[in-house]
Amino acid sequence: MATAKxxxxxQYFVTVHGLTFLPGGTCPSSNLSVLWTRGSKTAxxxxxxxxxxxxxxxxxxxxxxxCTLFRSPSAASSSSGFSEKLCGFxxxxxxxxxxxxxxxxxVDMAPFxxxxxxxxxxxxxxxxxxxxxxxxxxxxxxSRLQKELPRDGNDPSDRSDASSLSSCGxxxxxxxxxxxxxxxxxxERSGERAGERRSSRDGVSLGASRGAAAADGGVSASxxxxxxxxxxxxxxxxxxPQRSALRAEAAEPSRATVYSLDAQVSQLQAQLEAAxxxxxxxxxxxxxxxxxxxxxxxxxxxxxxxxxxxxIAADAASRQHAHESRQAAAxxxxxxxxxxxxxxxxxxxGSQLGPGGADADDRLAxxxxxxxxxxxxxxxxxxxxxxxxxxxxxxxxxxxxxxxEIELLSQR
Length: 412
Known about the structure:
five-stranded antiparallel sheet, alpha+beta, four-stranded antiparallel sheet, 23% strand, Immunoglobulin-like
């Protein structure tokens, strides 16, 4: 049979002197505090700011917690004689976004059970975040034995909450039993009054029926003198507080559930309104863009129709210029033919008018006349050539413009 463990309750005292941030780490500018945890129990120092130059913070505060140590034969080999008792120390930063854990460490408190408050043990703890060491924490730890607990592990102080709960349950059961007694008395009282009415009808006195009912039912004269309304009021005064408390306790979860459902409904309504607003904005933007696209399409169609009319007009103008150029070419051919004819006539006249064949004045006049005709023919030819060149240049420009407009229309 295994030997039961001995439980000893110690009160530990931890004096937090200060901490120093290690090189390479960041020294926060916000307030800091040291948190000591043992299971669900916690103790925390007041907030203190770290000095940026010395990279250290001074607390100088003493924290205290109660720990239960276990002494068993298996733990006799340890230096303290107790099983391991781990506690946690954490460095907390208090910023605008709340508290944040910067670093922490675990410490076995069993070896400090032999350190009295008059001679505390001073230790330097390394606070880490993951595998990186952040700061050094300087503490002094001592303890004081409070009492030895029974071997069954039941601490009367630990059962205080359970005792209060049990007493509350017992009083509630007593009230229920008292209510049952009152219901029984009420039923008996109703039976007595029914018997009295029957006895009165049969000619029996009311006092005799009350005495018989008291003798048979064991009800005292004072209880017999009470009415049903008095008993009901007494029962209500006794039961109503417990009933109201039970109803309040039962209503708390339902009220919280209703509040939660109302909050969810409000949130869903807000999300629905936001989605509807977004849909309306999207639809309005789509309608606006569609109207803009319709206007641009109508404008492009008008521009295309105008360019088509311009192209038709340019084609007609080019045809007109081509006709004019053909006429100018025909006129130029006629002028050249006329010049050739005049040259032949001049040559014939020169051959006919040999030396001594006519007067020199007549020959001179004839030559001047022929020269004038020749000059006029040459001027007419040059003018027709200029008109033809101008018509060709204008026709080429119109053709280039038409080609550019056709290419622009094909791109659109």
